[in-house]
Amino acid sequence: MIKAIVGLGNPGKQYEKTRHNIGFMVADAVASLLKCKKKHIEKCFSHIYECHDHDVLIVKPQTYMNNSGVAVRNLIEDYRIKPEEILVVYDDLDLPLGTIRLRKKGSSGGHRGVKSIIESIKTENFPRLKIGIGRPERKEQVVDYVLSPFSKDEELIVEKVIHSSAECLLNVLKYGIDKSMNFCNKKIV
Q1: Fewest C-beta atoms under 10 Å: which of 47, 52, 92, 128?
Q2: What's the rounded Cα separation, in Å, for the pair 183 and 47?
Q3: pLDDT for res 52
Q4: With 90 as the cut, is the pLDDT of residue 4 above it?
Q5: pLDDT value of position 39
Q6: Residue 189: its pLDDT value, please?
Q7: Would you please indicate which residues are annotated as catalytic (active-site) residues?
Q8: In sequence order, what are the beta bridge partners of 131?
Q9: Residue 128 pairs with which residues in a beta bridge?
Q10: For residues 62 and 71, what is the distance between their CA atoms, to the nearest angstrom?
């Protein structure tokens, strides 16, 4: 059973609509659909939405992407949640834009936010929803690419991806991960 959905991103206005913040965007969409109330909790280094009609927390770490593990470790300790009860949502360069993948566990795949979580909680055994953002042409463009906003042409696709990702997560909350794999793992557009 999933007790927390953790959307990864960077805090601050300048990062709001960037590719790296799609985890935050999906977390906001789920919190809205579940009518959750925002509650800022300093000791977890996160914005936490409590969903009173549902037994789940929606979490947006405020530690910056590369230190996400600090917030997740605090969440686990403060709320006594097991790693396998946390579903992490984040951007994935290796998936094309418009693709989402639900996984029960796995490596960081080079994602520094996920690497930070694995190092902090000492396990890869937590579910995740990877959201494709595509990859720039050259490797040296990656940092600028993930910290840049989506183009006007991509915005319609991103809206559909956020909606489908939120629906996927609601499905996971209702039916579990195993039963949600076919529903979630797809190319949206």
Answers
A1: 52
A2: 28
A3: 81
A4: yes
A5: 79
A6: 77
A7: 20
A8: 91, 100
A9: 88, 103
A10: 8
CATH number of 4-187: 3.40.50.1470
Token readout for 67 is 């230190």
8 A C-beta contact, residue 20 and residue 12: no
The DSSP line for the chain is: ---EEEE----SGGGTTBGGGHHHHHHHHHHHHTTPEEEEEGGGTEEEEEETTTTEEEEEE-S-GGGHHHHHHHHHHHHT--GGGEEEEEEETTS-TTEEEEESS---TT-HHHHHHHHHHT-S-S-EEEEE----SSGGGHHHHHTSBPPHHHHHHHHHHHHHHHHHHHHHHHH-HHHHHHHHSEE--
Give CA separation, 115 vs 69, 101, 107, 111, 154, in Å: 8, 18, 8, 6, 27
